[in-house]
Design brief:
CATH class of the largest domain: Alpha Beta
Distance between the termini: 34 Å
Strand content: 25-35%
CATH topology of the largest domain: Aminopeptidase
Strand order of the largest sheet: 1-2-3-4-5-6-13-7-12-11-10-9-8
Shape: globular
C-alpha cells in the first residue's frame, strides 16, 4: 500500500483491486450491491486506480477511477459520513479532476472536497438509482416460454457497434471513444446477451462475468426503437437476473432516476431501489 495522506485519525491511500475487495468483504453488512461502483470497476483497457479511506484504523469508504473517467465513491452508512477533509485526502490519493459518481448523502461534502482541491465546479449530469434483487422475489423471474439468449461472436460486431453507439447517445453517456475496440472487449469478456426472434435482434444486455464481493452489475439494456413497448427489456433482464442468481451471485443494476418507465420496469421484475446517487461532471 502507498499512503498519500495520514493523520492521527484518518488516512487515505491507494490500494490494489484485491485489497479493495478484501476491505469491502468485511464492511458491506449484507449489501454488497452498494459497493458495485468501485469493486466492479476492474475491466477495460485503461489503467484503473483504487483507494481506501480509513478512520481510526477502520475502512469507511472506497473510491476508483479509470483514465479520465469519473471518480466512483462508496461509503459506509453505519458510520458518520466522510468529512470534507477526509474526502479531500481520498480524492488527492486517487487523483484526477474528472467527474464524480456519489450517493446523494455524500454529494455536498464531495462537491466541497472537489472545490477545495481546485477542481472545476461540478454540474449534475444524471440522477441515478441503484437497485438490488432480493432472493425472495426469484419466483417473478420464471417465464413461459423461457427465452433462449445468445452470446455474440465476431459476426455480431457490426450490430453490437450500432447498439453501443445508439445506447450512448440515448442515455447521454456518449458513444465509446473507439467503438470497434469497445465491441471487441465486450465480446471477449463474455457478458453480452442477445435476445432474438426469427433472425431479428430484439434486445441486448450485459452482465458482469467476474463477481466482486459476491455481486455483479447488469447493464447496457437496450431495445431498438422499432421493438420497444413489447416487453423485450423485461424479458432479457429477467433471464439474465436468473442466470446470475443461479450462479449464486447477487445481481444489481442502475437506471436514470428521472426515467419513470425504467423504474416501473425493474420494480415489476422484482428489483428494489437501494440507493439514490448522482453523476456529476465538471463544467466545460
Amino acid at each position: 500500500m502507498k499512503p498519500s495522506s495520514s493523520t492521527d485519525n484518518f488516512r487515505a491511500y491507494c490500494c490494489s483491486l484485491d485489497e479493495l475487495n478484501a476491505a469491502v468483504e468485511g464492511i458491506h453488512q449484507g449489501l454488497p450491491e452498494r459497493w458495485t461502483l468501485p469493486t466492479n470497476f476492474s475491466s477495460g483497457g485503461k489503467e484503473k486506480l483504487h483507494a481506501l479511506l480509513e478512520r481510526n484504523d477502520e475502512v469507511i469508504a472506497a473510491c476508483s477511477r479509470g483514465g479520465d473517467g469519473p471518480r466512483l465513491l462508496a461509503a459506509r452508512h453505519d458510520r458518520p459520513d466522510p468529512s470534507v477533509v477526509e474526502l479531500m485526502a481520498m480524492f488527492n490519493a486517487i487523483g484526477g479532476d474528472g467527474g464524480l459518481v456519489v450517493s446523494r448523502q455524500l454529494e455536498a461534502n464531495a462537491r466541497s472536497a472537489n472545490a477545495a482541491l481546485g477542481g472545476r465546479p461540478l454540474v449534475e449530469h444524471m440522477p441515478l438509482r441503484l437497485y438490488r434483487f432480493p432472493r425472495e422475489h426469484v419466483d417473478r423471474l420464471q417465464q413461459d416460454p423461457r427465452p433462449v439468449l445468445r452470446t455474440p461472436g465476431a459476426g455480431d460486431s457490426e450490430a453490437l457497434a450500432g447498439f453501443l453507439d445508439r445506447f450512448g447517445v440515448e442515455t447521454g453517456l456518449g458513444a465509446p471513444d473507439n467503438t470497434d475496440q469497445a465491441v471487441e472487449e465486450a465480446i471477449d469478456r463474455g457478458g453480452i446477451r442477445m435476445l432474438e426472434q426469427e433472425g431479428a435482434l430484439l434486445a441486448i444486455a450485459q452482465r458482469g462475468m467476474t463477481p466482486s464481493v459476491g455481486q455483479v452489475r447488469i447493464g447496457l439494456v437496450y431495445v431498438p426503437e422499432r421493438y420497444r413497448r413489447m416487453g423485450h427489456a423485461a424479458t432479457i433482464v429477467r433471464a439474465i437476473t436468473l442466470e446470475v442468481i443461479n450462479d449464486d451471485i447477487a445481481p444489481c443494476l442502475f437506471t436514470d432516476a428521472a426515467n419513470e418507465g425504467t423504474d416501473a420496469l425493474y420494480k415489476s421484475i422484482g428489483y428494489e431501489p437501494l440507493e439514490e446517487l448522482v453523476h456529476l461532471n465538471p463544467e466545460p
